[in-house]
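Section 3.1: Structural characterization of target chains.
Under the original work plan, the team committed to producing a structural model for every single-chain target entering the pipeline before any wet-lab resources were allocated. The record below documents one such target. The sequence was received from the expression subgroup and is listed exactly as submitted; it comprises 254 residues.
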Amino acid sequence: MDISTLLGLLLSLGLVGGAIAIGGNFSGFVDVPSLIIVIGGTFMVTATSFPLLDILRGLAAAGQAFTAKLPDPGAEAERIVKLCQKARQGGLLSLQKEAQTEPRVFFQQGITLAIDGAPPELIDKILVSDTATHLARQQVGLQVLKRAAEVAPAMGLIGTLIGLIQMLGNLSEPDKIGPSMAIAILTTFYGSILAYMVFSPLASKLERAGAAELLLRKLYTTGTLAMAKQENPRQIELQLNAILPPAHRIALFR
């Protein structure tokens, strides 16, 4: 997992836990029925909203987005230009070694297609289709996280209503009012923690990771097509800079 994501989750939860511990009554914030209502309810309702296979695929895509370390787009653009330059000077067959050792599977697929002599139109079609499929899987993961973020506060509210109903039904028995009140308040607390400190930040992280992945795939697609067409490296640099954000643009040829 990306270090900022891990640190953010741990520190935010740690701040809440620390504030509770300073109050000196940490055990008062632990209530098993409330946890069952919020965590179990959030999982069940979210699972009801999607086919199980979509949830598993979506969560797998989400996990890859959080754990995969994406390369710097500027450095990748420079590498692409150099590969295109080599292909223009020595022919596409000179890239066979690079195709075998390429760490990015998507780019490796594109280079291999170019070496095999596939027409640029076919290469573009295959790479664009692969990107669309990949982004669709990530979108499912994003929808799962967003749905969970919506459901968690609602389950907290349901738990609050359950606790209030139990409390009102036991006004004649003071010893039962406390546990019912705990369910009423803590379920809202747990639902807010899950929604606003876990699921929503993770959804935002996945969204940003998807945008970064899409940028890289655009660079790789443009570079692969340029290799297949044996284009001038200077022109390739201009094409890649048109895709890159200003802070990552390259200047190999002056």
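Residues 36-248 form one domain.
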